[in-house]
Amino acid sequence: MKPPCMVVVQHILPALRLEITRELVEKYGIKRSDAAAKMGVTPAAVTQYLSRARGGSATTLVEGSGRVMELVDEISADIARGESALDVLLLKLCRACAVARSEGLICQLHKDSMPGLSDVKGCSCALNIA
Questions:
Q1: Which of 1, 58, 84, 128 is most deeply packed, by most CB within 10 A?
Q2: Per-residue pLDDT tens over the stretch 24-49
Q3: Would you list the DSSP string of 5-60?
Q4: Which range among 6-10, 20-24, 27-31, 120-124 shows the weakest confidence by mean pLDDT?
Q5: For residues 93 and 75, is the Cβ–Cβ distance under 8 A?
Q6: Residue extents of the structural domains in the chain
């Protein structure tokens, strides 16, 4: 059994990191090594995010959500300016995941990973958690 949380960890979080990394490097002009340090990941991870080797599986879903992308923009701006404490950034990242779940963004990913869910009507992933 694979709960929705596992799908979030495997697909949504990497896609969020990809988008945040992309904004830090492309929008704010932060060097890849500095973006890696600010995000607490390795420079290799930054390269993988930017090439979509990591996070690419759910990027289209994340990019398709205005609410999630607003949070990505907010997180990226906060990181670039160094304006928010780590706990605040983590709360915003958790909120982005909650919004992704509430909008049902992970439902198809979840059903793909657990074919037994394909007959389920509606979406149990989109619990009212946001």
A1: 58
A2: 999 999 999 999 999 999 999 999 99
A3: HHHIIIIIHHHHHHHHHHIIIIIS---HHHHHHHHTS-HHHHHHHHTTSSSGGGHH
A4: 120-124
A5: yes
A6: 4-110
